[in-house]
From TrEMBL:
GO CC annotation, single: apical plasma membrane
Function: May act as a transporter of organic cations based on a proton efflux antiport mechanism. May play a role in the transport of chloroquine and quinidine-related compounds in kidney. Plays a role in the regulation of lipid metabolism.
Designated name of the protein: Organic cation transporter-like protein 2
InterPro entries associated with the record: MFS (IPR011701), MFS_dom (IPR020846), MFS_trans_sf (IPR036259), Tet-R_TetA/multi-R_MdtG-like (IPR001958)
Keyword Protein transport: no
Gene3D superfamilies reported in the protein's UniProt record: MFS general substrate transporter like domains (1.20.1250.20)
Pfam assignment, any one: MFS_1
Organism per entry: Phyllostomus discolor (pale spear-nosed bat)
GO molecular function terms attached to this record: transmembrane transporter activity
Gene: SLC22A18
């Protein structure tokens, strides 16, 4: 029975968010997401330069990027199922612990006394369990009413912008001042702190039995974490597959450019690590402007940031409304496979396009793909509003 004091559509645990209360849990979720994004972009800002210092060429660096994307691609849907069944606390803690191992191995790879190349590739393995974004999205979706969900998920885009700015600035600045091993070590300490905060402050479960939530089938056997049929069946629910395909196809060109950006920064613009960090921070500032007003968006936003931010917020909101509350984590895990898919295919496809046609080809591909998606949606628009089946 629903708690009388809970907000509409929220169960007791979802409404109060455990001991901290719902507003503080949401605030902590945004803070933890910002920390993880900052650490991620610290890694991105130094990884190309570390790879080059270890003697890796662009092809081998592409393999390194591909391995990271492939592992996240494989782990995303299963991790989403794990988050649904084991709860938000377990999902956050496991993600931060996995990230801590990654950054520790990356720090060790910077030592001349250790086998750097082997440790560098070994540092990609924990990516299988690194899924802070879908964990944070699940908490936000669980603790937000459907009409508030787009705005709540949009704030995670603000966290992403903060991560780009702080991570890129810190990565370039710390590596220039204290050596290339400093950014991954700082990220290691930050993720250990994130694991502690997750285990002590995030509620065990944020799932509620809201009035507008679709309950899990009563009396049926509970699907396991590794039940791929239970994961794939979500894509077959009404209104889900078309939105998911739009998310994949339209987001791929933007992700392709972001995957190749580190190589473009070094080879085309001839930037050092600190300079590349400043340029990436500029993207973060533009992305944060998206969260302020439509006027700022019209003045500042390039199509790249639009596709990475607005498209993700809209499609994630539609997709989480289309499934039951007990499956939001699994659906967000599926959504989280889009970027790893880009990181898996991007180094090969992007490298071929870059060598053959130059930097401008990424803009041409972005325009062509999104124009075709626009024509398809013009002829067969998506449902105006997708809500959970009662």
């Amino acid at each position: 029975m629903q708690d009388a004091g809970a907000p509409r559509g929220q169960g007791p645990s979802a409404a109060h968010g455990g001991a901290l209360g719902r507003p503080r849990v949401l605030l902590l979720t945004y803070a933890l997401a910002s920390v993880e994004f900052s650490c991620l972009f610290m890694q991105f800002s130094v990884l190309p330069y570390l790879s080059r210092s270890l003697g890796l060429d662009s092809v081998t660096f592409g393999y390194l990027q591909t391995s990271f994307g492939l592992l996240q691609l494989l782990g995303g849907p299963v991790f989403g199922r794990f988050a649904d069944q084991r709860g938000a606390r377990a999902a956050f803690t496991v993600s931060f612990l996995a990230a801590s191992v990654l950054y520790l191995l990356l720090t060790a790879a910077c030592s001349p006394a250790l086998p750097g190349v082997a440790l560098l590739f070994a540092s990609r393995l924990p990516a299988l369990f690194m899924h802070i974004l879908p964990a944070a999205q699940m908490v936000v979706a669980d603790l937000s009413a459907p009409e508030e969900r787009p705005a709540a998920l949009g704030r995670l885009g603000l966290c992403f912008g903060i991560g780009i700015i702080l991570g890129s600035l810190l990565g370039g600045t710390l590596s220039a001042a204290y050596g290339i091993q400093c950014p991954p070590f700082v990220a290691f300490v930050a993720n250990l702190l994130g694991a502690v905060l997750s285990f002590t402050c995030i509620p065990a479960s944020t799932k509620g039995a809201g009035a507008h939530s679709q309950a899990a089938p009563a009396g049926g056997p509970r699907a396991g974490v590794f039940d791929l049929k239970a994961i794939s069946r979500l894509l077959l629910q009404p209104g889900v597959l078309p939105v998911f395909l739009v998310k994949v196809v339209s987001g791929f060109p933007s992700g392709l450019f972001m995957v190749m950006f580190s190589i473009i920064s070094m080879d085309f613009f001839r930037l050092e690590a600190a300079q590349a960090g400043y340029l990436t921070s500029f993207f973060g500032i533009l992305q944060m402007a998206l969260m302020s007003s439509v006027f700022h968006f019209c003045l500042l936003m390039p199509g790249l940031v639009f596709s990475l931010c607005t498209l993700n917020v809209v499609t994630d909101s539609i997709l989480t409304k289309a499934v039951s509350a007990s499956d939001t984590g699994t659906m967000l895990g599926l959504c989280a496979t889009v970027q790893p898919l880009t990181r898996t295919l991007g180094p090969t496809v992007g490298g071929l396009l870059y060598r053959s046609f130059g930097v401008s080809v990424f803009g041409h591909v972005q325009f062509a793909v999104n124009f075709l998606v626009l024509l398809v949606l013009w002829r067969q628009p998506l449902p105006h509003k997708t809500d959970k089946v009662r």
